[in-house]
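Replying to the earlier thread about multi-chain prediction with a worked example.

Input:
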Amino acid sequence: GAGVSQSPSNKVTEKGKDVELRCDPISGHTALYWYRQSLGQGLEFLIYFQGNSAPDKSGLPSDRFSAERTGGSVSTLTIQRTQQEDSAVYLCASNHGVGQPQHFGDGTRLSIL
Amino acid sequence: SQQGEEDPQALSIQEGENATMNCSYKTSINNLQWYRQNSGRGLVHLILIRSNEREKHSGRLRVTLDTSKKSSSLLITASRAADTASYFCATDVGGNNRLAFGKGNQVVVIP
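Result:
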């Protein structure tokens, strides 16, 4: 597609449920990033995929968070046993790699009740 | 640790005026980037300035970088109502393109 696509755009779920957030990067982009944006913490890096290399998971806040990127394209961010503090906007970005601007999707707004 | 940090001020200006916002960071960088975010949308890349560059222009935008002071500024000239948005600086520290963002500056341009 023309840009980074994220789905769903909004997700409301109950505390304790698992959620999956999807990101379709720009075709041909080798690098994919997940960030979280919340009022209290600003924009936080979560995880980074580059080609076939092992992902940089250093920003994941807990072991309830995981992400995968299948076939070097689509990525899924999974949050297990959601907590209220997980409520935030989850943004995905992609680019051609190091030193290049990142292209962002519009994010998934996650609300945990 | 937080790298890019904008001056925590909200700007409210009249259309046609210039808007300037600043960003400081703590450690050496490979590049510094500015992004814009409209309400409810993702971030849009504006300008990337590398550590060996001092100034860069793109249309009505001018970015400066002072590595000795570890600071950058974004100037929007002849502002328009459509420039109303939040502006973030971000630094690429480790060369892996993992960005550290500042908290953002909210700019309101009054028609």
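The beta strands of chain A are 5-7, 10-13, 19-24, 31-38, 42-50, 65-69, 75-79, 88-95, 103-104, 108-112.

Feel free to reuse this layout for your own posts.
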